[in-house]
Design goal:
This protein is of the alpha+beta class. It is built from 19 helices and 30 strands. The N and C termini lie far apart (about 85 Å). Dioxothiomolybdenum(VI) ion binds near residues 207, 519 and 722.
């Protein structure tokens, strides 16, 4: 029965697979929430939101608005059938404001109408009177007044106070980092359809289908089993749809459930910008101490996080700021304190890096400041203090398989840092009004949800009787390519071609109790669950094949859709074996489960082993500043990035490039501006500048440091979603360095983003 049949030559190497969504994206066939064809009787929802940032609602009158032609009903907090509560971590956020408003843009009423125009018209006829209360927009002011969203946290390693006494050099300073608008191409939205048994099905643009399900069930006062959430894909999330997608989904579901009609709530861009939270701004203090050899002996930092008006995810983000407060460096004595401050801004939320970038900016500023005072390159301090195997992070985890120095040394060697510096110096000597700046930015990012219990996932794999395969997981595709990776994992595990596999929508009825697609851990967690399911199916198939071969001791394997017995190709292929197994009533479906082993964390002691592993890398950034105009260009970003054994290099490269440009945007041009009344001034694309094609560095090279260490990444392919964003911090310091080359006595502070306006002022200021 053993034949010498050749291995199929159509097998595509996994690495050339690319992104399964690309053809549909570029031909406009990809489906987003607003593309789902509306059913007969669908209601359109519009939100009436607060026009002041803090105050009591004295009166509200919507009788006239309700009579507008086409308006079906206007809903207030009194119409919420269950709990008027959407807070994920802390129950401090009403779905609809009741007697007070806490931020401008806070939803108060929902208008449901036969069409969008009627709903818009009704909004204009709603009358509201407020009694204004004091508005706080600054986190330090909130902190001084004791307004905190959650208890403050403190990470301690060694004894910084004692260690400062041993330091030769001590420097102190203040930093500010601003928010960042997610600007996902697809705005927030949901479409809900009432279903049998008093239930509802919600199509939501969410990273967290289970969060939407849980919140909706709470708002409706029904069981989670009465809410089915389905997600095809998102036109971007970037953290902004981890928790904040639940609001619109709960609204659409509530209207659909009460009215027994389909209902759609999709925000327009300016509504989205005004009503949703952004990356948390931080105002921070640092104190850094070094010995005579530039070893960092002690570091103290205090972070004031601007949380906005409700906790949302800010307490978890605060925690990650502390986890990453020493970035890639080993510092033996650390005291880091973080406060989540309550202000009258829309609740700020997850954004790529989840507080990590904010923490890293502060240590980088501290090192930069120390270097400037000492008259040396920051790179000297940076390189010297990189983590090594055996070093301890402030949270107690011991460094294993550190790639920090390897990435640094490889990028500085490959791009000949000495030569780059010499060229820049020569350029700067020759040009009076153009100055170049260079920086190095190492990154070390922990992979796992910092909340240990969230690190689990499930997958459902069906092999159909024709040999085609359907895979459902808890992973949400938001452009990061996770669906492609899931297909590749299943293809490898089952030994079949990627085109046999379809990735289904993410659906709470197929895969339950999911963690959001976040923390860069989606491919790891869901991929391992897919592996588990496929292994179960393989075991059944292998046992069945042995009944055919008649020898229990045969070694069975399926590769390239051919069944191998004792390493020899057999007469069976995948399709035949599946058909025969089906006729023999073998179970061709499996549910996989994965929970990350090893990790744990004790929040009382603030010690543990919270991360499955760390991702490392280093970026060199070179910029040219026009010293008459204050404008700048990014000449180059060269990166060596620790990707492990990438299963999809083109997707991972895309994540690096996108993340870097998004990080550069945060650090150099995107300026979220609220006035003292809490009104968002940067409320449209005309007033909020995000990177465009011209902002992309002229050279953007990412080289993967291919490592083959045992780790907890799926098929050793390390998480890549968030870490590259933090290379963008390098752009801040490169621009700053150029400014200081032009004007060594500039009074420029550590205040990001370093916009052209700030550059211009920095170029001509004196300290
Ligand atoms: N890439 C695209 N194209 N769109 C996104 O919304 N989100 C980022 C990152 N890359 C995002 C993205 C964020 S915030 C995270 S946490 C990860 O993708 C989530 O996906 P992963 O866990 O599969 O990396
Ligand atoms: N990262 C991203 N999202 C999260 C996390 C995290 O660590 N914890 C809860 N949500
Ligand atoms: Mo990403 S900020 O963890 O969604």
């Amino acid at each position: 029965m053993i034949t010498d049949k050749k291995i199929s030559s159509t097998t595509k190497p996994a690495t050339s697979f690319g992104n399964v969504d690309t053809p549909n994206h570029v031909t406009g066939k990809s489906v987003y929430v607003d593309d789902i064809p509306g059913m007969e009787g669908m209601l359109f929802l519009k939100i009436f939101d607060a026009t002041i940032a803090h105050g009591k609602i004295k009166s509200i009158d919507y009788t006239e608005a309700a009579q507008e032609e086409g308006v079906v009903k206007i809903f207030s907090y009194k119409d919420v059938p269950g709990e008027n509560q959407i807070g994920g971590i802390i129950p401090d956020e009403p779905l609809l404001a009741d007697t007070e408003v806490h931020f401008m843009g806070q939803p108060i009423l929902i208008v449901a109408a036969e069409n969008e125009d009627a709903a818009e018209e009704a909004l204009k006829k709603i009358k509201i009177e407020y009694e204004p209360l004091p508005v706080i927009t600054n986190p330090r002011e909130a902190f001084a007044k004791g307004k905190l969203l959650s208890p403050s946290r403190k990470f301690v390693l060694g004894n910084s106070e004692e260690a400062f006494k041993q330091c030769k050099y001590i420097f102190e300073g203040i930093t500010e980092s601003n928010g960042q608008e997610h600007l996902y191409l697809e705005t927030q939205g949901a479409y809900a359809v009432p279903t049998e048994h008093n239930s509802v099905k919600v199509y939501s643009s969410t990273q967290g289908p289970t969060a939407v399900q849980r919140t909706t069930a709470r708002v409706l006062g029904v069981g989670m089993n009465q809410v089915e959430v389905d997600v095809t894909r998102l036109g971007g999330g970037f953290g902004g749809k981890e928790d904040q997608a639940s609001t619109w989904a709960a609204m659409a579901a509530m209207v659909a459930w009460i009215m027994k009609r389909p209902a759609k709530c999709v925000l327009h861009r300016m509504e989205d910008m005004r009503m949703t939270g952004k990356r948390n701004p931080y105002s921070s203090d640092f104190k850094i101490g070094l010995d005579a050899h530039y070893n960092i002996l002690a570091y103290e930092a205090t972070f004031h996080q601007n949380g906005g008006a409700a906790a949302d995810l800010s307490p978890a983000i605060l925690e990650r700021t502390l986890f990453h407060c020493t970035n890639s460096y080993f510092i033996p004595n650390v005291t880091a304190t973080a406060h989540s401050c309550k202000t009258n801004l829309p609740p700020n939320t997850a954004f790529r890096g989840f507080g990590g970038p904010q923490g890293m900016f502060v240590i980088e500023a501290a090192i930069d400041y120390a270097a400037k005072q000492l008259g040396i390159e920051a790179a000297i301090i940076q390189r010297k203090n990189l983590v090594k195997d055996g070093s301890e992070f402030p949270y107690g985890q011991i460094v294993e398989n550190s790639e920090a120095a390897k990435c640094w040394d490889e990028v500085t060697a490959k791009y000949d840092i000495k030569k780059l510096r010499a060229e820049i110096d020569a350029f700067n000597r020759q040009n009076k009004f153009f100055k170049k700046g260079l920086s190095l930015m190492p990154v070390c990012f922990g992979i796992s949800f910092t909340n240990t219990m969230m690190n689990n996932a499930r997958a459902l794999v069906h092999v159909y009787s024709d040999g085609s395969v359907g895979v459902s997981t808890g992973a949400v595709e938001m452009g990061q390519g996770v669906n492609s990776k899931m297909i590749q994992v299943a293809a490898r595990a089952l030994g079949i071609h990627v085109d046999k596999i379809k990735l289904e929508s993410t659906n709470t009825s197929r895969v339950a109790n999911t963690s959001p697609s976040a923390a860069s851990a989606t491919a790891d967690l869901n991929g391992k669950a897919v592996l588990d399911a496929c292994i179960q199916i393989n075991e059944r198939l292998h046992a069945f094949i042995k009944t055919l071969s008649g020898n229990k001791n045969d070694k069975v394997e399926i590769k390239d859709e051919i069944v191998y017995i004792n390493n020899q190709p057999s007469e069976y292929n995948w399709k035949q074996i599946i058909q025969q197994a089906f006729f023999k009533r073998i179970n061709l479906s499996a549910k996989g489960h994965y929970a990350t082993p090893v990790i744990h964390y004790d929040k009382i002691k603030e010690k543990g082993h919270p991360f499955a592993y760390h991702v490392y890398g280093t970026a060199i950034t070179i910029v040219t500043v026009d010293c008459l105009r204050g404008t700048y260009e990014l000449d180059a970003v060269h990166v060596v990035h620790d990707a492990g054994l990438s299963i999809n290099p083109s997707v991972d490269l895309g994540q690096c490039e996108g993340g870097i440009v998004q990080g550069i945007g945060w650090m150099t041009m995107e300026e979220v501006v609220y006035n003292e009344n809490g009104k968002l001034l940067s409320n449209a694309l005309s007033t909020y500048k995000i990177p465009d094609i011209y902002s992309v560095p002229k050279q953007l090279d990412v080289q993967f440091l291919e490592t083959n260490n045992d780790n907890l990444a799926v098929l050793k392919s390390k998480a890549v979603g968030e870490p590259p964003l933090m290379y963008g911090i390098g752009a801040y310091f490169a621009v700053r360095n150029a400014v200081l080359t032009f004007n060594p006595t500039s009074s420029i502070t550590y205040n990001a983003p370093i916009t052209p306006e700030k550059v211009l002022m920095g170029l001509y200021s004196k300290s």
